[in-house]
Amino acid sequence: MDMRAKIRIVLPLLFLISATAIVLAVTQPEGPGTLTVVNSSRRLAGSALTTQATAGNITHLIVQGQTVTQSWQGFVGNITGTITLDDANNNTLYDWSLADPEGEIYATYLSQVNWTAGSVLCWNWTIATASYLQLAELETNPAAGDGAPSVYGGIGAAIDDVDGVNETFSAPGAGAHSNFFAGPQAITVNATDSACPVTRLYNNVGGGAFQEVLLYTDGTGANNDGVIYTSILNQSATGYDAAKHDFEMIVGEDGHNGNVAVTTYYFYVELQ
Amino acid sequence: MKTTNPQRMAHITLLLLMMTLAAAVVYAQASTQPSAPSTLNIQSNTTALYPNATALNGTRGYIYTVELNESAPTQKWVGYVGNVNGEYALQDASGNALYDWSIATITGELYATKEGAFITAGTTEVTNPYAGGIPIWSNLSCAGWELVRKESAYFNHSFTNVSTAGSANTAQEDALVRTFINGSGFANPGFYAGERQVTDSIIGLGQTGTCFGINLNQNNADQTARWYEIMATDGTEQLENAAGNSNAYDIVYVSLLENDTVGYNGATYDFQTLLPQSGLSGAQSNIAFYFYVELI
């Protein structure tokens, strides 16, 4: 840069700055840019085992078996991408590569969710209010008049099934999980705020490496009132299959009584 | 015709008077300094949000392995882009212009600082945040590593290890301390703040190294030839708290003006600037910035 002249006429300036601000007034979970299914698999049914029968004998058997759950479906995977400062046309003023994602991934059968503060909170199925989703409505066939089992994401389980909702997730307030934000709403565990129902999905040695909690939005009508399965990201943690995953989660899916219909889940992600 | 002595004296007096007036007008201001813009209008205010979810069908009993790719909006930054319009004028204190010139080519700098009006030397950031006053332009230098990491921590950009330059990688990707870089990643081409020249090696508070800065995008792509933004300081400070055991130095973000140059979205602008906001989650108050501009 040239040096300025030492002797010059110095002039006050009149100028106008017109500016466009690229701002983010509030963050909230949003649909990922892309979501690709890499593969899907389920346990294969084992072949039958045999034993000999001899007339006149009474044979005591101890039978140990494994069977595929008819109430749940799993999603595991990784998150890549960027953090950006974009305008409404997705033009980027600046961006940052996302090497170690932090945040949450959400899955719900609700086609839309109101993420404003106070709208999405821990699901507390002990709240005995008619308009508030009850445990039985998610687990079993809802009471007469509430509609089909698929209403409220019902998984069609019996109340005493070992793979029911309250058998999988801890009771409201009974467990512990990391604090996080769902959009503007703080989800915290402290002296005044009870924990959400929580479960921990496995790594390759059965340890609970991936936290999943149940959030709930108490909207009006079946399409706006329901559970949001929430997995707290665990960057490149060893997963159930010894591979590295950023998240693992399970979502309810009714496969009882020959039900082969699929359930559409809507995914949101919130990164920071 | 010869002039008489009184006439000659009158002529000389008049000439001296005119010279004095001319000198008074010409030298009324000893040097240029950045100054607040006359007006600043927001033309638009946008961000990118994707409120709709992404749907996926699944069957019970299956484990689906998926990969998500996401461009997540940053919570830590705000951007300003725009144009500078105006004119040079030879004015008196009442704003009356003796003469003015239209500005055809925009060159200079846009300065942004969160420091507002100065209160007293004893105010602290806890009781009176951002009371650093107008920057002392004659003291302007680049901010060194110590100030960069303090500013990053000040905005809660999750910088946990503040001891050494190499520990910046412990912060989140869009943290301030990982955004403004120096060395092979950035070089300040140099600018003047008033009479003060700030080159890439002019680091404040006795620190060594080179300036920290960034190049903002052009046509949605990274580039290093234009749109420079540099972190600077005038070396003044407020105590962070009453105990007086740490300091909050005043930081000035300097954006070099580009005359009608293609910006981040293909449109042409005179300036683009990136300014930090709170890195805390949840609803946070906006931190205001004070803008100054200097045209040369």
What does this structure look like?
The complex is a heterodimer of chains A (272) and B (296). Chain A has 272 residues and is mainly beta. Chain A has one domain. In chain A, 3% of the residues lie in helices and 36% in strands. Chain A has helices at 135-139, 165-168, and strands at residues 13-22, 34-41, 72-86, 92-97, 103-108, 120-122, 180-182, 185-187, 198-202, 208-218, 225-232, 237-238, 244-245, 247-252, 263-271. In chain A, the strands form four sheets. In chain A, strands 5, 6, 9, 10, 11 and 15 form a six-stranded antiparallel beta sheet that branches. The longest helix of chain A is centred in the middle third of the chain and has 5 residues, at 135-139. Chain A is globular, with a radius of gyration of 26 Å. Chain B is mostly beta strands. Chain B has one domain (78-90, 100-295). Chain B is built from three helices and 16 strands. In chain B, a hairpin with a 2-residue loop joins strand 8 (191-193) and strand 9 (196-198). Chain B is globular. Mean pLDDT of chain B is 81; it is low at 15-30. Chains A and B meet through strand 1, strand 2, strand 3, strand 4 and strand 5 of A and strand 1, strand 2, strand 3, strand 4 and strand 15 of B.
What is the strand and helix layout of this fold?
The complex is a heterodimer of chains A (272) and B (296).
Chain A: E1 13-22, E2 34-41, E3 72-86, E4 92-97, E5 103-108, E6 120-122, H1 135-139, H2 165-168, E7 180-182, E8 185-187, E9 198-202, E10 208-218, E11 225-232, E12 237-238, E13 244-245, E14 247-252, E15 263-271
Antiparallel strand pairs in A: 3-4, 3-14, 5-11, 5-15, 6-10, 7-8, 9-10, 10-11, 12-13
Chain B: H1 5-26, E1 39-46, E2 54-58, E3 63-73, E4 77-91, E5 97-102, E6 108-113, E7 141-142, H2 145-154, H3 176-179, E8 191-193, E9 196-198, E10 213-215, E11 228-239, E12 247-256, E13 261-262, E14 268-269, E15 271-276, E16 290-295
Antiparallel strand pairs in B: 4-5, 4-15, 6-12, 6-16, 7-11, 8-9, 10-11, 11-12, 13-14
